[in-house]
Amino acid sequence: MRTVNIHEAKTHLSRLVDQAAAGDSFVIAKAGKPMVVVAAVDAPPIEKIRRFGFLKGRFRVPADFDRMGENEIAAMAGLTE
Q1: pLDDT (tens digit, 9 = 90+) per residue, 60-69?
Q2: Which of 16, 29, 34, 55 matches a 20 to 30 Å C-alpha distance to 69?
Q3: Is residue 80 domain-resident?
Q4: What pTM did the predictor assign?
Q5: DSSP state of 52
């Protein structure tokens, strides 16, 4: 989420509100300190938006993940006999 300072928010309020209404929420900061979040009225609450970990438990990483395909890669690089 992008941050705008309070001066920029006052100067470009109409454009920023239009962008927020279109789904591009932003934070208004005063002296570098985040003060408020501006979001569309029908936007889901920020704490309800899950971005990281949404696939948790859906798949497993193989134990040899860091070595997967090493034989094929070595063969393509001409490193095998």
Answers
A1: 888 888 888 8
A2: 55
A3: no
A4: 0.52
A5: S
User: What pLDDT, in 10s, does the model give residues 25-35?
Assistant: 999 999 999 99
Ramachandran angles phi, psi of 6, nearest 5°: -65, -35
DSSP letter at 78 equals T
Q: What does 7-35 look like in DSSP terms, one character per residue? A: HHHHHTHHHHHHHHHTT--EEEEETTEEE
- Rounded to whole angstroms, the Cα distance separating 32 from 35 reads 9
Give the residue numbers spanning the domain of 2.
Answer: 1-40
Sheet holding 2-5, edge to edge: 2-5, 26-30, 33-38
CATH number of the domain that residue 18 is part of: 3.40.1620.10
Q: What is the pLDDT of residues 47-62, one digit of tens each?
A: 666 667 777 788 888 8
Residues of 25-48 as b/e, b for ≥16 C-beta within 10 angstroms? bbebbeeeeeeeebbeeeeeeeee
